[in-house]
Amino acid sequence: MLNMLAHHANVLGSVATSSLTAWRGCLVVKAVPQPEQPLVLYDMEGCPYCRRVREALTALNLDVQIRPCPKGGRVFRAQAEATGGKQQFPLLVDRNTETVMYESEAIIEYLFRQYAGRPVPSYYRQRVWQPVLGSIASVASAMRGLRANAGKQPKQPLHLWSFEGSPFSRLVREKLCKLELPYTLHNLGKEHWTEIGPAKQRLKPGPYKPIAGGKRDAFFKAHGRVQVPYLEDPNTGEGLFESARILDYLNEQYG
């Protein structure tokens, strides 16, 4: 009972984080083709600057390999420094263009220009108040996803279907970061305004029908529903919906 109450409290904190960041990273601005080689992001889940890059990745529906680098981490921080020259995050690596980049604003501009062929939309541009609100948003989530509590490392990276603005998905990403577990982040942003709302309470009533040919359509055909977070672990063959179940699994398997 206490664990469930704590989980609900964390969900409310995560909702506050999404609200303070204006629910960016929910809707797809332009779905672009996945690059031939996957993007790599050295990332701290609770960092407001890393969050802004993940928001842009959701807006473009781009998947990315996440290499968590929480404070005190020992798994990927040295690798990040060897790659870019310093331990600063976010750090984006794009092998398709031999690009290694720091600074969230530069990364966001690069992603929209390189993969969408357009300037950064107004909604995703830097505003003078955003760093302050971003920091408050991290506090609302109790600064989870900033410090390491390293667990057992998997032989193969995990796979998480998520979108940045999802409060429930954020809880799972925080745990993955805390345990320094590498994973492929499959962005599954909402592709139309009628999809706004929780999986079972969308604005458009009636049976859910995703846009044909999109990533949500492919997920729906595979699972019979579109709901995040969804975690797959190739090391054990597990596939799990529901944030509470996923968190329990990660604690038991890797914590």
UniProtKB/TrEMBL annotation:
<dbReference type="InterPro" id="IPR004045">
    <property type="entry name" value="Glutathione_S-Trfase_N"/>
</dbReference>
<feature type="domain" description="GST N-terminal">
    <location>
        <begin position="156"/>
        <end position="255"/>
    </location>
</feature>
<protein>
    <submittedName>
        <fullName>Glutathione S-transferase N-terminal domain-containing protein</fullName>
    </submittedName>
</protein>
<dbReference type="InterPro" id="IPR011767">
    <property type="entry name" value="GLR_AS"/>
</dbReference>
<dbReference type="Pfam" id="PF13417">
    <property type="entry name" value="GST_N_3"/>
</dbReference>
<feature type="domain" description="GST N-terminal">
    <location>
        <begin position="37"/>
        <end position="119"/>
    </location>
</feature>
<dbReference type="InterPro" id="IPR040079">
    <property type="entry name" value="Glutathione_S-Trfase"/>
</dbReference>
